[in-house]
Amino acid sequence: MKISVSSKIFTALAGVIQVSALLPRLEESNLNLRAEATCGDVSNLAPFTQVYVPASTQHVYSIYNNNVTNFFVGNPSAQYQGIAAFIFSIQDTSTVPFYCLHNSAVTAFLYTANQTELAIALASGYTLSFTAGYIYPTQICGSVPLYRLHFIAANSDYIYTTSVTDRENAIAMGFTYEGVAGYVYDVLSCGSSS
Question: Residue ranges of the DUF5648 domain (predicted)?
């Protein structure tokens, strides 16, 4: 009799295990649907290139080839510094505009996705140059932080990086860490949706 009761318990337990083995798959399926619903289409990502113009001590970023080319024309000392990140070229699911503002008085290019900061910058002498692209306002879909650092001097400068090492090196050079400008993809995270 003990064997038959143990056998029944084992059979019932095996049934519970089989059902619970299905539950994680259902939850994963729901998470995947949510990820697809909130993540932008990675085929819309573009390289957010970084150019440094030493004559005016300014970093300029753009996804548009003509903007990058224009900084080299008339600026023979301009230096292409590579891809800072990957951002969306069009407004996509869960993204917000990433504005480029310029202040000629301090030769600074400021990039922001924050509407309040945009209004304050416009009221304090910045002009809207263009929409640089689109980024996530929160960390989702395998995105990484885009750090903003500011160098305050006669010629102000902002730099943007996804690298913690670059962020720390900039701080050591006198830049002030201002926080996360938004969330983007870097070379390692590009295309990840986890």
Answer: 48-184
